[in-house]
Design goal:
This is Rhodanese domain-containing protein. InterPro entries: Rhodanese-like_dom, Rhodanese-like_dom_sf, TrhO. Pfam families: Rhodanese (PF00581). The structure is a single chain. This protein is α/β, with parallel strands linked by helices. The strands form 4 sheets. Strands 1-3-4 form a 3-stranded parallel beta sheet, covered by helices on one side. The chain has a two-stranded antiparallel ribbon with strand order 2-5. The longest helix has 17 residues.
Length: 228
């Protein structure tokens, strides 16, 4: 069984073929997902294959084949995990092994190393990989991807997303529009106007104590004589 330990918004734009999506919004939720879907199923005697979220639909991995001849809800003997650069899956591997699983593996170097070394013709990767920098997403060979960032929710958005009526630059996107109140959107619009006008949220006085605001302009107006 292969598990993607990244957040759901990262998995939404790309993952390995057949990998399980835990549908977590933050990495801190991953231990709870493991406890719920591995240990509870084991303690409760298992569930049918169609109800077990650990088994991807139309999966062709060895766990899927073995499950046809074993008890329903049989826990996989081997678990492989991956993430963007390898740090999160290392932590996840340690956690799963601490719970008694022995055959636990992770992708060394993460997705980025895989995309850098494996050519598209031999790759099992589908889509693009979300990255936490200005690139937003990368493709094979670590080439610049096609996604942009919604600055309201920090999730990746596609060209199709930006054609939606829910897309408003710096305010909302189709993935967060329904979660924001009109008051929140109004504040976001004000921040965006400040950024467009001054290049920084908060305007030219950002970070300047109220008592000192305007002093620099006054000093420039009456320069000190250098003739003394």
């Amino acid at each position: 069984m292969v598990v993607d330990v990244r957040n759901s918004y990262e998995i939404r734009i790309g993952k390995f073929t057949g990998a399980v999506d835990p549908r977590t919004s933050a990495f801190r939720e991953f231990p709870s997902w493991i406890k719920k879907h591995l240990f509870m199923h084991q303690c409760n005697g298992g569930v049918s294959q169609s109800e077990n979220p650990l088994i991807p639909e139309n999966s062709t991995n060895d766990f899927d084949e073995q499950s046809k001849h074993q008890l329903p809800g049989k826990i996989p003997r081997r678990i492989a995990m991956y993430c963007t650069g390898g740090i999160r899956c290392e932590k996840a591997t340690s956690f799963v092994m601490s719970k008694g699983f022995e055959e636990v593996y992770h992708l060394e170097g993460g997705i980025l190393k895989y995309l850098e070394e494996v050519p598209p013709s031999e790759s099992l990767w589908e889509g693009e990989c979300f990255v936490f920098d200005k690139r937003v997403s990368v493709e094979h060979g670590l080439k610049q991807g096609t996604y942009k960032l919604c600055y309201a929710c920090k999730e990746p958005v596609s060209d199709v997303d930006m054609q939606s009526a829910d897309w408003e630059y710096g305010v909302s996107c189709p993935h967060c529009c329904f979660m924001k109140s009109e008051e929140e959107k109004a504040r976001a619009r004000a921040r965006q106007r400040q950024f467009e006008m001054w290049g920084v949220v908060g305007g030219p006085n950002k970070g300047v104590p109220p008592g000192r605001r305007g002093r620099d302009k006054k000093r420039d107006r009456f320069p000190i004589s250098r003739s003394l």
